[in-house]
Amino acid sequence: MRLALGTAGLVAAIALGLGGATALAEAAAGAVLTAFTLAAPGGRRKPEQLRPPGSAAASAEDPWWRVLAVAMFPSTYGVALLTGIALVFNPNLAAFLSGVMLGMGSVALVYGFSFRM
Predict the structure, then answer these.
(1) Contacts of 84 (CB under 8 A, 6+ apart)
(2) 47 belongs to a structural domain
(3) Which range marks the domain in which residue 70 is found?
(4) Does the residue 109 lie in any domain?
(5) Would you say 97 and 34 are in contact if contact means Cβ atoms under 8 Å apart?
(6) What would the pLDDT profile of 20-72 be if each residue is shown by its tens digit?
(7) How far is it, in rounded angstroms, from Cα 9 to Cα 103?
(8) DSSP codes, 55-114
């Protein structure tokens, strides 16, 4: 889902007149920074006091769509919304945010494959 949203945002930024090379460079910067941040040791851990009380995590018995919705909230929804808004005002920022989404999707894909093995 994240890879599809990131690709769609990047294509939309290019369609709005941003040069292809510029859009790819900005998306690459966003993807690399995001992947580095998420892959860094301790990059995804939150201190206990910053975790919301009673956060509802999906369980193995939940349907696939609920697991997907919980996994995507709030990061994917937030970045997708900001990308959509940025498309109206600043295609450069939209390309960078699309890269952020692509970076999140890439890390999730690598994590998913490493978890299964």
Answers:
(1) 9
(2) no
(3) 2-40+60-116
(4) yes
(5) no
(6) 899 999 999 999 998 888 777 665 555 555 555 555 565 667 775 566 666 66
(7) 13
(8) -----TTS-HHHHHHHHHTTHHHHHHHHHHHHHHH-HHHHHHHHHHHHHHHHHHHHHHHH
Q: How far is CA 48 from CA 67, 73, 112, in A?
A: 23, 19, 25
Residue-level pLDDT at 2: 84
How many C-alpha atoms does 3 have within 13 Å on its Cβ side?
Answer: 6
Residue bearing tokens 């790819």 = 24
pLDDT in tens, 66-80: 666 666 667 778 888
Name the domain count of the chain: 1
* CB-based contacts of 75, cutoff 8 Å, min separation 6: 104
Q: How far apart are the first and last CA of the chain?
A: 22
User: At 40, which amino acid appears?
Assistant: A
Render 34-55 in DSSP notation, one character per residue.
Answer: HHHHHHSTTSS---GGGSPTT-
